[in-house]
Design brief:
With 388 residues, the protein is mostly helical. The protein has 16 helices and no strands. α11 packs antiparallel against α12.
């Protein structure tokens, strides 16, 4: 409850990072308490991150720049982009997701699969949308906060996915937990041991570090078995991927599989998405046993006709809402593909003449106002990561 109200988990991790950097001598300690308080309590990020490093934000945080037209416009564009993700896509998708997950025993097979995919989309749109709002709010004041997402669904393996998703949490665990574990005296002795096989000396510290990091990552999200299982699941997947990487490489060469083509990259992306999908059923399920039952149903019940027989229209969304969802996600997909290929759509728009710029900006504002989920009779949902 307190965590949700004051964002204590994000605040605490940022404070630990600051104190650790000072202890290690990476940064100089602030001598004025108000500057430290401003860094730790900067209002946009205190509830959900991103988890900023002192070295990332100090330059712009303490400068005190006056309001500038470009910063204000860019900030509000980023804020409305986040509101579009949250109010038009995530809150609309939540109606279907909540219906199925809260009554999972009434649904089977492809319906569970659709809800699982919907939840992954909902969570991404909610969390990345919240980050857009936070980073945009900082931009209004000329303060640059670190990015927290980088097209995670373009990842080709689970490790890469987590380097693109919740980036600041991942780098925090890497720098302040994983590296200190593998650099302990015990594991240094393991690495230098002449009695142990080379495979053990090379991999044991990494396996131990990853196991601890992912178990703690699961527990950090919630004190329930399904969160711990989610963390263990990813720990096992990433450890196995690391250990088997040489085997995969030899196998692809042996089978003469072409790995530098679009089809193989698409296979990797789809495979990674399926791994992530199963993980997030564990994460979202109403308890560990409920999650296991849903996963089993996804892969054992064959009923693909639910996608065409109108079943999806009975899950809280009518045809009009599905059309809005599909069109909105296509827009997001196009922007994500452009960003993945090095084309920053916001920057490209800002380089056009001012009339075209404001046509695009007003179109986005009215899209949120017209198609956002809100108003009388709707129970507005808070950002999901407020609970972690």
């Amino acid at each position: 409850m307190y965590k949700r109200q004051i964002g204590i988990s994000f605040y605490t991790l940022q404070a630990i990072g600051y104190m650790t950097d000072v202890y290690w001598g990476t940064i100089q300690a602030e001598t004025e308490i108000w500057r430290t308080a401003l860094f730790l309590g900067f209002f946009p990020q205190i509830m959900e991150g991103p988890i900023a490093r002192y070295s990332d934000v100090a330059d712009t945080l303490y400068t005190g720049k006056p309001l500038e037209y470009r910063n204000v416009v860019d900030g509000y564009v980023r804020i409305f982009w986040g509101l579009f993700k949250k109010m038009v896509i995530a809150d609309r998708m939540a109606l279907m997701v909540n219906q199925v997950f809260d009554h999972y025993a009434d649904y089977h097979g492809a319906v569970i699969l659709a809800a699982a995919i919907g939840y992954v989309i909902q969570l991404y749109m909610e969390f990345s949308g919240c980050m857009d709002i936070i980073i945009g709010s900082g931009k209004l004041f000329g303060i640059c906060l670190p990015e927290n997402f980088r097209q995670p669904f373009c990842a080709k393996n689970p490790s890469e996915f987590w380097r693109r998703w919740h980036i600041t949490l991942g780098t925090w665990f890497r720098d302040y937990l994983f590296y200190p574990i593998i650099r302990t005296k015990m594991f240094q002795k393991v690495a230098k041991s002449k009695k142990l096989p080379k495979f053990v000396k090379t991999n044991l510290p990494t396996i131990a570090g990853l196991a601890v990091v992912w178990l703690i990552t699961g527990i950090w999200h919630g004190a329930d078995w399904h969160y711990a299982a989610w963390g263990i699941y990813y720990g096992m997947i990433i450890i196995a991927s690391s250990l088997l990487a040489p085997v995969y490489e030899k196998l692809t060469k042996l089978l003469r599989i072409k790995t530098d083509c679009f089809s193989y990259k698409l296979f990797q992306i789809v495979r990674t998405f399926l791994i992530v999908l199963v993980g997030y059923v564990l994460f979202r399920g109403n308890g560990l046993m409920a999650a296991f039952k849903m996963i089993r149903s996804m892969f054992t019940v064959y009923n693909p006709w639910v996608f065409t027989d109108g079943t999806l229209m009975t899950l809280g969304l009518d045809a009009a809402n599905w059309n809005v969802l599909i069109l909105s996600m296509l827009i997001l997909l196009a922007v994500s593909i452009a960003n993945e290929n090095g084309i920053n759509v916001r920057e490209r728009i800002s380089q056009q003449n001012i009339i075209f710029q404001w046509i695009c900006y007003l179109a986005g504002i009215f899209a949120v106002l017209i198609f956002g989920i809100y108003g009388s009779g709707y129970d507005a949902s808070a950002f999901m990561y407020l609970n972690f």
